[in-house]
Amino acid sequence: xxxxxxxxxxxxxxxxxxxxxxxxxxxxxxxxxxxxxxxxxxxxxxxxxxxxxxxxxxxxxxxxxxxxxxxxxxxxxxxxxxxxxxxxxxxxxxxxxxxxxxxxxxxxxxxxxxxxxxxxxxxxxxxxxxxxxxxxxxxxxxxxxxxxxxxxxxxxxxxxxxxxxxxxxxxxxxxxxxxxxxxxxxxxxxxxxxxxxxxxxxxxxxxxxxxxxxxxxxxxxxxxxxxxxxxxxxxxxxxxxxxxxxxxxxxxxxxxxxxxxxxxxxxxxxxxxxxxxxxxxx
Length: 282
Hints:
By secondary structure, this protein is α+β, with helices and mostly antiparallel strands. The protein folds into 2 domains: about 1-140, 2,3-Dihydroxybiphenyl 1,2-Dioxygenase, domain 1 (Roll), CATH 3.10.180.10; about 155-280, 2,3-Dihydroxybiphenyl 1,2-Dioxygenase, domain 1 (Roll). Helices cover about 20% and strands about 40% of the residues. A hairpin with an 8-residue loop joins strand 7 (about 120-125) and strand 8 (about 135-140). The longest helix is centred in the N-terminal third of the chain and has 13 residues, at about 60-75. The chain is globular and about 45 Å long.
């Protein structure tokens, strides 16, 4: 079964500059650097409850060509959700029964570019048309699982939630809930905000599905993995750090969730709408 969100993928034009940007944004260094078969390079940030993988073309090959085409068409941005599993073989059987037509289970391996350390996993892919147009994988980690490193109070500790924009909320509700098996935490239409929000919990984070009430429903329109809200312990210190690093950030304000405070990162996140959030201790 799915145990959480293993990682998200952010496609960027060049890995060194992209890594430098996100080291400043997150307030922590990349935990894993690797070349990827087919002409790619990756940098992985292991956070408290998920990982962020930057992926960029590097050299020649089919992967480099696909990444270059994505960047040319849409610019840098989020492309992929990879959910973690405790048994990808059992999930393959379940998803087949539920009509998701998962791809064959494949083994993966990554070698750290500097240390030579190895990471292994098994995974499957859900076809894009079954996942509302978003690239969705399910992976079962093997040897070499990364452990989150302690984070400073002004650094990102984990992912609070990822936002998916949809024009077909019932399709998204069925996919993430009935078919993937994520726990539905909320389904609420708020005319004051002009949006229908559907929250799924997985691990200790939220997948937020957002449908603007002003837009018509359209099952032919693909969903878009849109933005991220990063959790920090000390939001004032995080804002000072980002301002000092050259990011344009908003003032701190009350969040929608009671007891939360947030600020917006207005630039520099490589086409990813970005929010920082801190929650009052209970």
